[in-house]
User: What shape does this take?
Amino acid sequence: MTIQTYTIHVTSDNKPGVLYRIAGIFARRKINIENLTLYETEIPGTTPFTIIAKMTPQIAERVVQSIRKIIEVRHAQATTNKEILKKKQEITSTRELSSVVTTIDVSVIKRVELLARSQQGVISLAQGIPSFLTPEYIKQTAKDAMDQGLTDKYTAGYGIPELRQAIAEKLKKQNNITIEPSQVIVTHGAIEGLMAIFMTLLNPNDEMIILTPDYASHITQAKIAMHGSMPIFVPLTETKEGWVLDPKRLEKAITPQTKAIVICNPCNPTGKVYTEEELKAVANIAIKHNLYIITDEMYEDFVFDGKKHISIGSFPEVANRTISVFGVSKSYAMTGWRIGYIATNPTLMSQIFKIHDSLVTCPTAVSQYAALAALTGGKESVLGFKEEFEKRRHIVMEELAKTDKLEMSLPQGAYYAFPKFKKPIDDVAFALELVEKAKVAVVPGSPFGAGGENHIRISFGCDEKILREGLQRFVNYINKKL
Amino acid sequence: MKNKQLTGAQALLESFLKEGVDIIFGYPGGAIMPVYDALYDYKDQIHHVLVRHEQGASHAAEGYARMTGKPGVCIATSGPGATNLVTGIADAMIDSVPLVCVTGQVAFHLVGTDAFQETDIIGITTPITKWNYQITQASEIPSIMAKAFAIAREGRPGPVLIDITKNAQFEKTDFSYVAYEGVKSHIPALDAQKKQLLAAAKLLNTAKRPYILIGHGVQIANAEKELVTFAEKGGFPIAATLHGLSSFPTDHPLYAGMLGMHGNYGPNILTNQADVLVSIGMRFDDRVTGRVKDYAKQAKIIHIDIDPAEQGKIIKTTVAITGDAKKILKELTPFIKKRTHHAWLAKFRKADHMEYEKAIKKELAPTTPHIKMAEVIAMLSKKTKGEAIIVADVGQHQMMAARYYKFKKTKSFITSGGLGTMGFALPASIGAKFAAPNRDVIAIIGDGSFQMTLQELATIAQEQLPVKIVVLNNNFLGMVRQWQELFFNKRYSFTDLKNPDFVQIAKGFYIPASKVEKRNELDKAIETMLKAKTPYFLEVVVEKEGNVFPMIPTGASVEEIRLE
Assistant: This one.
């Protein structure tokens, strides 16, 4: 019988003893394992193994069958190297792709969204898009700028001076962050800013801590920047009153390799708004261990119940190590315009700029004029959006109260509810099932990192009628199914 | 509501109660003492059977599980207590018997220090358990025990070992018990296998010589009734593996007999004439297939099994249906056409006749001066109307018990099949009797096997358990001797036994005992034994160099079965 080289992919619960059982299956058949790799994924609690060994097709089949019988194993499959090569060639007919890109998937949010769009009559509570249109005065300013010929050419890579000035003033007034306009980079949405920051700071063997659950793209971006290494998750504690940071847990996760902490405030997906005390604790730990702090404050304007959004960048003691990231997408209903901005100290600035320059050259000119109008115009529209979201938040609580299958706290900010299933479920599979069977799209919690498993994220960005209908479909389905 | 605080040991026993456990088999020792201390207060709810060696505990638990279908529970201390369970665990693994074995372990802070009676029982039992786990804190006990029972029981059953460090037995914990529902399954739903069901039905409905092979899976799935309906509708002849015995009545006109190395002639030889072969809950063990290369090459094979790893493992299947035999037969039967296969069945009868003339007649109507094993079994069968539970050990006597006892009731034959564990029957009969107190339980044991676990006579005596023990004594390791005779030029290397006085031994354990050497004494002796309300030991001195035939020599094809 022909002996071939097989690559066996196994996905298992991350529990002690599984490797021993798998290795035993090879050892008892006197098969030498040529290569064994274990790694981490976004899904907490699971470990994929890749095992390379030489055997006959019959033995390979038996080995895989035996591996599948191990209680902790969720999935096992054997492929010959020829088949793998063929698969790689299906992606690209020439040479194989980067080892990073093959390990990352299109974000689950987008996958759910795509599935929802491919089917008729699905209501999406998945992607975080506000239902509002960009206010008229902002659009008008953009049109005027186009008419005046201001938007035809590249702008300065850092952004147009007027916008940087307006951002500096906004940061001073709204966030209590005192900086010069020269300390601002205007980016192609916050996501580009974050990618540039990660690429500026991180080496493959560095560790970056993400307070989780956290926006899934941060995790993917960090993985790309670290050439495949996973960030370290420090989950917040879920309580009846909301998610709480345990500074001791954060400090325990720090090693000599730790370089930075990412904090999403207000948090997507949990709606968590960090207290001053929590932010001070993060600041102290960052000082003690000489770490950078990276923020994502996209939802700063949507904070409810009289809570106040505090920017950690406003603490003078960490001003030199904090990189604050903001944007206009959510506050001004401008997700399509793609404008975000970074504020940090001049030394870091000039380094981040190198990456930013390589990624985008400069932010879109016309969008910069629109952002300028947004930041210099009144706050009326923002406050109007906030009021509307607050109303929708109550709709969510009202509708979700109609089931006893979930438990959750009131979101403190952003426009997401993040309920937890009382019964353990596979949230990714369940989210896909919801699209197919209940015709409603929500985002599974696992991809948001540790603590997100067994949750789903519901966006209440959409308008009232759709929201209510979507929630009712969701609640009816889980009441029936779970 | 605040849950009550219990020690880990109490939590373990409460977990047993939640799982409906009312009997456990065990042996105390240092690292399991907190559990034994707690057991003192649970005496009324959980009957603890004190065995005389931990191997006995695991086999007794197997006997209990085989009869009830519920996981058998055994407990032992760390170190040697735990390693003594190993044979029973391996036996349960290969024969798909649900067991929950609990071992004590040194306190967690001592684990890995080569502490007194410390052994890595998790490492040792990894390849022979379906799952194992070391509990190091009391709070884990309820959830892990729930998981352990679920894993032992669900899908293809098997043994689970839970090692509990001593500190976890002492510690206090909240107790709340939720049945575990998360055992993952690779079994596709039956409605997703409609295609396979229809394909199987089509093969069977057009078959000229269909043939059903049944294994242990029929009893595990409680599919006996469905099997009868299925077979009668299609007119299919049925043969059983060693573990399939008793799940189909031996006096049914469609019953063909036993498969395997010492099985019946027709069932083996006709395997290679069938055009459609349906295996139900059997795994094409090498003792059944003989040389695989020449096994049923002409037949289309339908393999029904709950374990997808078995399908296609040894024999290439045409149609594989994965799942519980009972459910599958229920789904499949409506698609089966009502048919009969007279000519095909006649071939079985003809083969039976040949076997009777050449092999059986001289066993049952012997002219030899000494009693033959088959005579004893046939007499037992007749006197118990085929309704007793036979617990056979391993060797010639096992094959004779399997061949000559005419089973009328299901779950009546318990033996060590896959592992072939000598010493299995005596302790297993203890578990079987506790599981079925109203049925006759007869252990059939060879003189070699008996001496491997005979200390369990003390357990039987202490429990006053009316198990009937028949030792067929030929003063040889008979099966090995038979092989030496047939394949090793009669070089009887270390197989003759100078045995002790077994009757004296049994009496020493306060068990009534007698010995038979003459044919004309046999009837009365068996009668006395069966009538006894107490445990009873009967030694029958049998022909010294008797052989079991038919036989498929190792490495031969089923067609090369020898009648003499």
Residues 342-364 of chain B form the longest helix (23 residues).
